[in-house]
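Notes to self after the call with IL:
- keep both proteins in one doc
- input above output, always
- annotate only the second one for now

Protein 1:
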Amino acid sequence: MENRTVVVTGGTRGVGAGIARAFAETGADVVTCARRPPETPVKGTEFMPLDLRDRDAVSTFFAALPRLDVLVNNAGGTPYRRLADADAERHARVVELNLIAPLTASLAAHEHLRRAKGSIVMIGSVSGSRPSPGSAAYGAAKAGLDSLARSMAVEWAPDIRVNTLVVGMVRTELSHLHYGGEDALAAVSRTVPLERLAEPADIGAAAVFLASDAARYISGASLLVHGGGERPAFLDAATANKEN
């Protein structure tokens, strides 16, 4: 990835920082953007402030870049919120951040990426393919993001490759907000076949792969990075075929 420019949205902490760090370690020129600067700068990256929901600001940001080879649409997230506990406008903001913002960034980056024969990596979620109580709008947005990426891969081929990382549970500095303390994290980890949550570096390595020449014939794909998924609940409830 040397001599290539990579933009990682929301690349200042958690999964985004892991992705930015992974690209920086390959020798790429990495630019991260978010509304607020990182508390701990990611070594080897440059930070630029940007509100991805401000379409004019997004257009200005990408127009000012001298070149762009890879766009990683990572910015997103949601607090825990049951559907009936908030109005439609609040849920719509979640959809805007997790679906509309990646579309806005991709459109603004299109000409750069077309000239560079570059690629886009969407950071999706397993929440987009299974029920997601407490984050239903987020799950719906991630389902839409996966569909958007597949359509984009067809429309923008052969100049730009577009793929999605479908990410499972990741251990970050905010994991306790979703899963609880250390005992809860250990219990949640045991539900994953690989018996641990992903580290941000795991997601970063997969993003680098999809953006690299090693994946030059991969486009419109959804790569599951979830440690084997989730053990089916009926296996623990059933009384037949139990191992001794």
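Protein 2 (the one to annotate):
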Amino acid sequence: MEHLDSYLTIAAAFFIVTVSPGPANLALATVAMQSGRLAGLSFGLGLSAGLAFWGVIAATGLGVVVQGTTTLLTLLKLCGGAYLIWLAVQSGRSAARKMQQTATAAHKGGWFWRGMLLNLSNPKAVVAWMAALSMGLGQETNAHAVAAATLICAALGFANYAGYALTFSLPGFMAGYRRSRRWIEGVAAGLFALAGFSLIRSALTR
């Protein structure tokens, strides 16, 4: 129980960051509404794997190296921005397609790998991890406490993504998506493009 207060502080900080709207949650909601529960859960599991990877990086101290290495951080931002722009193009193309064509395209599969790639290409994830861990753990904290905090945050990330997948794959959300598909995909395309170009601009102006 020694680190209970620290764990609660870290969990609260990480939960706020994880549940807030962002490219990962937006993409997951769209996948779940478009392709259903199984696709949404698979995509969410991939997002969780990518998020956990950055958690390990932050917990082992390599996050500081990533943050301090300008070339590596710039490369990650460029890759992340390019992937978000690719998502924007895909959403834009989906908005332009007829419903039958969209249904066919939605069953390509590979949702786990797409989700993992989305979070692996997001350098902001390691910043979120480092901020959350630093709020509750000090320099004197032992490795077991760091590992426990990382596992708690990883579990919260998985719970968040599972919640998004289960919620947005409900019949009401899927029916609403079918009715307003072009508007939803169009807005998603704009948000992905905005996030992608912002990340690229951040990389080039660092």
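Annotation: The CA atoms of residues 30 and 168 lie 8 Å apart. Residues 100-106 have pLDDT under 50 and may be disordered.
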